[in-house]
Specification:
360 residues; alpha+beta; nine-stranded mixed sheet
Length: 360
């Protein structure tokens, strides 16, 4: 029967019987497995402040060549995820860590990998584990998963040490997932976060790919700016493929005109609003967000850009037209208006998706 894990183990603030550096060879898997298991441990930093580290925490780990009290830049730390904690007493705690690798380290193993196509704060999450001493732990850190095809992708900051990863690195198989070539611009070069200035994103389920603005212009995927184009931008539905032609008008005719809520003294009354344009029944701010081109890059809203905000607005319009025609009162909790617009309000050219032909 497996032994029950203890909940937490606390380091003593001072120890006398152990060297300052963790032995680089660590423990063997057999030695590690023989130790008592814990779900977390507490260790002091160089200033004596206590920090709790637990299973699945992502942490900074000091390289073996440094001492716990030595100050080093954040980019020189190793980054790993805690997978198992075992100890032979308060001053002899060992941790099995799953590593994040730097692009440069991966390139030493997979010669065809191009680290220059990665962002400054980008890592690759590996299936490689090591057993390291708790004395190497230096603090907590968050590494955000970035899925370029995910229209609900959480925000990733562009400031110092906003770490993220797009790829998983299988060390023994010498394989990267997803393949870098599967998510690239029409030019064949992947998005370089923090370097590329403007990319246009197609949200269609069969595309979900961003292309450099310069590449689209050079290859002639351009059309004139117009009100009709803005309408088609809204109708580039994130949840509907190009094989289905559903417009604002066709959806409205299928389910009746959009309705608004009118508040009475004691209850809310649903009142049909007969209009020539079904979109007139929607909040102006919501329509303005949905009309935006979906972009990302250093000059287009940052690493993730306005992908999440604009696709949320279009999805909300589609769902409203497809169902009861009533826009939820709390729609602003679903659509982040502020992140939908470029900071300098620049005018973008009218571009088309090279795969499906939709306006992007």
């Amino acid at each position: 029967m497996a032994r029950k894990r203890k909940s937490r183990l606390t380091h003593k603030k001072k120890s006398t019987g152990n060297p300052d550096k963790a032995p680089p060879e660590g423990l063997s898997k057999r030695q590690f497995a023989a130790l008592e298991g814990y779900t977390s441990f507490v260790a002091p930093d160089s200033e004596g402040e206590q920090h709790t580290f637990g299973i699945n925490d992502t942490v900074y780990i000091k390289p073996y060549a440094t001492t716990p009290s030595e100050a080093i830049p954040d980019e020189d730390y190793w980054i790993g995820k805690v997978r198992d904690i075992r100890a032979n007493g308060p001053d002899d705690v060992w941790v099995r860590v799953q590593w994040y690798w730097s692009p440069q380290e991966v390139a030493e193993v997979i010669k065809s990998f191009h680290p220059e196509f990665c962002g400054k704060y980008e890592k690759l999450f590996s299936d490689n584990h090591d057993i390291v001493s708790s004395r190497c732990f230096a603090g907590h850190i968050h590494v955000e998963k970035y899925d370029e095809r995910n229209i609900h992708q959480p925000f990733i900051g562009e400031g110092d040490y906003n770490w993220f990863y797009r790829y998983t690195f299988e060390y023994n198989a010498k394989r990267i997932i997803p393949k870098v070539a599967t998510v690239t611009c029409i030019c064949g070069v992947p998005y370089i976060p923090g370097v590329d200035d403007i990319l246009h994103f197609c949200p269609r389920p069969g595309c979900r790919t961003a292309h450099h603005q310069t590449c689209l212009l050079e290859r002639g995927f351009v059309e004139d700016l117009s009100e009709e184009r803005c309408r088609r931008l809204i109708e580039t539905w994130p949840s509907v493929g190009t094989t289905v032609t559903e417009t604002v008008d066709s959806l409205a005719n299928m389910n009746g005109p959009p309705r608004k809520r009118r508040k009475g003294e004691n209850k809310t009354v649903e009142c049909p609003v007969l209009r020539d344009d079904p979109l007139e029944g929607f909040p102006e701010e919501l329509i303005t967000v949905a009309r935006q081109q979906i972009v990302k890059g250093t000059k287009a809203g940052g690493i993730v850009g306005n992908v999440t905000a604009v696709t949320a607005a279009r999805d909300l319009i589609y769902e409203t037209l497809s169902k009861d025609g009533i826009v939820p009162d709390d729609w602003k909790t679903v659509v982040d208006i502020d992140s939908a617009f470029l900071d300098d309000h620049q005018t973008l050219p009218g571009l088309l998706c090279p795969f499906c032909g939709s306006p992007i």
